[in-house]
Write a structure and sequence with these properties.
105 residues; Arc Repressor Mutant, subunit A; globular
Length: 105
């Protein structure tokens, strides 16, 4: 792993809101709508935090209808694996508004 990648991952992990996002994803995939409720910040602000984590290769996304779901990348670097081991999972990060199921039969 080169120094630029290390710097990007450390910068991405060095923010309390992004740590909370990672804590949510420790229990599995989470819909973007739930992050707004957990962090209590605007959806555009949540999107910026998620973008930084994705660009650092820490998380990945998949689209479900009009919503995006985020999860931790399975093969983390040793650096990120060590950091993630120190973050306690945050419960209550699951789709409570049923936004993920709109339009599904």
């Amino acid at each position: 792993m080169d120094n630029t990648h290390i710097e990007k991952q450390l910068k991405a992990a060095a923010d309390l809101n992004r740590i909370k996002l990672l804590a949510c994803m420790k229990n599995g995939e989470v819909c973007v709508c739930d992050f707004v409720d957990v962090l209590g910040i605007s959806q555009p602000a949540v999107s910026q935090h998620l973008r930084k984590l994705k660009e650092a290769g820490i998380i990945t996304e998949r689209k479900v209808g009009t919503w995006k779901h985020y999860r931790l990348v399975e093969d983390q670097t040793p650096l990120m694996q060590g950091i993630l081991e120190q973050i306690q999972p945050l419960n209550g990060c699951n789709c409570v508004s049923n936004c993920c199921y709109e339009g599904e039969e």
